[in-house]
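Subject: for your reference before the review

Hello V.,

The reviewers asked for a structural picture of the protein, and I figured it would be easier to keep everything in one thread rather than splitting it across files. Below is the amino acid sequence we used in the manuscript, unchanged from the supplementary table.
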Amino acid sequence: MDYGLKGKTALVTGGASGIGRATAQALLEEGANVIVVDLRGDAVAEAADALGRNANALQADLRAADQVKGLGATVEERFTMPDIVVCAAGVTGAKGHPLEMSDGAWNEAWETDFMSVVRTLREFVPTMEKRGWGRVVIVCSENAMQPYSDEAVYNVAKAGLLNFAKGLSRVAAPSGVLVNCVSPAFIETPMTDTMMDKKAEAEGVSRDKAIESFLQEDRPHLELKRRGRPEEVAATIAFLCSEKASFVVGSNYRVDGGSVATMSV
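And here is what came back from the structure prediction:
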């Protein structure tokens, strides 16, 4: 299927690994040129090299407003302003009782997961609007719809993104820029590897055993009983970036294996 992305330029944050890297690969396969952005300079350079031709790497700390502005200037100078932006950078943040989270823990999650998206889109969406075509996909989370009590700082930041995306979609769509979200659940990424390794160490079991018990005890509605694969999320993101999604605006596509136990409303 031709997604109509040949010659388009996409910028993918969090592109050094996980969902971001898989998305970059999917968009490259559709003929797009891709700029992968990550906090980790060596890792993002390695990712771009591995992705091959038409992939370029840039390092930036998206928590810093001046670095995001610098990113916009660098992209405009060295490449071309993107037609597509995928915001996949993020952290789970501190865990624990919601009222025991420090101000620093709340701020870390908010700056990394929420404000990084606002700052990035502030740099690139206006150019898309002037051109009359664009796609924005924000990687959210199941936690936005089904919050877990020990992940409060992450829940709130991701719920905020859903609200922000819906509001932005309404003002951007008349200019041809379509904004949507994708909400994964328990995907096989370095982030969930770290979560499971900590659980395995605490319980004195293997990572596989930790994953098995996590699915049984903490994600009982994840009907497929496994972690998702980054490429499974990337496939949905690529669709939303395409001409095939030309009537999809302000939506949230859940790629969660059934983990969210409620109806989509």
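For the response letter, the relevant points are probably these. DSSP finds eight helices and seven strands in the chain. The CA atoms of residues 5 and 262 lie 34 Å apart.

Happy to draft the paragraph if you're swamped.

O.
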